[in-house]
Design goal:
Layout (H helix, E strand, L loop, with lengths): L5 H16 L5 H8 L3 E7 L11 E9 L5 E2 L2 E4 L4 H17 L5 E8 L7 H15 L8 E2 L8 H14 L23 H20 L7 E5 L5 H10 L3 E7 L2 E4 L6 H11 L9 E3 L1 H4 L6 E4 L18 E4 L7 H9 L3 E3 L1 H4 L2 H14 L6 H26 L3 H20 L4
Bound molecules: glutamic acid (GLU).
Glutamic acid (GLU) binds next to helix 12.
């Protein structure tokens, strides 16, 4: 198996958990848990507005349904593979289990570059994906959501395509989360992942006796997760000294004016050109001396190569799988406290769960209620994982995986012999 991929990272993390649990569960049961239930590859061929036909692949993986319908986002990137989607779906299984949500893990991939698509063609492609994948989507099968390269608008198109195909104005139950509020979405879903990241950072600071007020922070990624996390960190008194996006980083040791930077980025789609900071290389930014490093961009960003030069005291994994297992070992040797992805970025799927129940029960939640429940669950789960880590002398990742895999194993046992 190739190394440093999302799937190899997820598999290594699982194998470690299986080792820890081998005294408690049958190894055959643990091996069964690791395998995806269903991996689907579909070809779609939408015609874009200039008349050209685009033949491309979409993937849907349901990794587990032991705890309930598979849950997980739709990733649209030019290089996403079926293996990546399988690794991400596996991560969703652990994330939902850790967060005590009644969901299994799933994920979708669309092999396309969203930056190459105008709004019209992106809508066409999302509708194509939905039509092709519809038989795999449903409130009790698989419930997609936004992920890298997709957003709440796209989720509105998913819902509309499904409703329209049945000749109806809406759907019976929740088929997709992360929708616009006007179509049954929940207020605060877009910000949920970034806010959740900062809730866990605040808890980790307490555990490390580090004051968040005045702490220096570096944020990789300035999208839906990194941008929101940077703003929330600053709001809580941290000094955000550098942020990066796909094109590069911007650095100001005195602290960046994050709201002004968000405005600049929204207008120009670039960090560069922001008057109160110096441009720097995005990779080098990860090695800046700082208290908090938030990795909220792509997978496998912190590897055996650069991990020895990471100087942060605390690494918050806002993205899925940003740290390779080898890097993880190096960070542990250097006493870098890692908040693992399945805990750190779980605020998104937690609020998806609130959206799911809101739609199922036809309720309406306020943003204050959503924020309060998010903060409570993130802090509660951080405390649970930290206490498992302490009691069993494990890293936070090992403790989170231990809890998650154990929960899925118990759910399978409770279901009996067949699933
Ligand atoms: N894509 C997000 C994740 O990786 C959210 C998934 C969801 O809300 O279902 O956790």
């Amino acid at each position: 198996m190739p190394t440093d991929t999302i799937l190899s990272n997820a598999t290594a993390n699982f194998n470690r958990a299986a080792e820890m649990l081998s005294g408690e569960f049958d190894r055959d049961l643990l091996d069964k848990i690791a395998q995806p239930k269903e991996k689907i590859e579909i070809t779609v061929g939408p015609q874009f507005d200039d008349g050209t036909i685009h033949t491309l692949k979409v993937f849907v993986v349901r990794h587990s349904d032991a705890l309930g319908p598979a849950k997980g986002g739709i990733r649209m990137t030019p290089d996403v593979t079926l293996d990546d989607v399988a690794g991400l779906a596996m991560e969703m299984t652990w994330k939902c289990a850790l967060m005590s949500l009644p969901f299994g893990g799933g994920k979708s991939g669309i092999v396309a570059d969203p930056h190459d698509l105008d709004e019209y063609n992106k809508e066409t492609l999302i509708r194509s994906y939905t039509r092709a994948a519809m038989r795999h989507i449903g409130p009790m099968i698989y419930v997609p959501a936004p992920d890298m390269g997709t957003n709440e608008r796209d989720m509105g198109y998913v819902k509309d395509t499904i409703a329209y195909s049945a000749g109806q104005a809406g759907t019976q139950g929740c088929y997709v989360t992360g929708k616009p509020v006007i179509l049954g979405g929940i207020p605060g879903r877009r910000e949920a992942t970034g806010r959740g990241v900062v809730e866990t950072v605040a808890e980790a600071c307490k555990a490390l006796d580090l004051s968040l007020t005045g702490a220096s922070a570096v944020v990789q990624g300035f999208g839906n997760v990194g941008g929101v996390a940077a703003a929330a960190l600053r709001q809580r008194g941290a000094k955000v000294i550098a942020v990066s996006d796909l094109h590069g980083a911007i650095h100001n040791p005195a602290g960046l004016d994050v709201p002004a930077l968000l405005e600049h980025h929204a207008k120009t789609s670039r960090l560069e050109g922001f008057p109160n900071g110096e441009a720097m290389d995005g990779k080098e930014m990860l090695e800046l001396p700082c208290d908090i490093l938030v990795a909220a961009a792509a997978a496998s960003q912190i590897t055996a190569e650069n991990a020895p030069r990471v100087k942060a005291k605390l690494l918050a994994e806002g993205a899925n799988s940003p740290t390779t297992p080898k890097a993880d070992e190096i960070l542990a040797e250097n006493n870098v406290f890692v908040i693992p992805d399945i805990l750190c970025n779980a605020g998104g799927v937690f609020v998806s769960y609130l959206e799911y129940t809101q739609e199922t029960q036809q309720e309406q939640w306020t943003e204050e209620e959503v924020r309060a429940r998010l903060a409570k669950r993130m802090c509660q789960k951080f405390a649970e994982v930290a206490s498992t880590a302490e009691a069993r002398k494990l890293s936070m990742r090992e403790a989170a995986m231990y809890q998650a895999v154990k929960t899925v194993a118990n759910a399978l046992i409770a279901r009996g012999k067949l699933p």
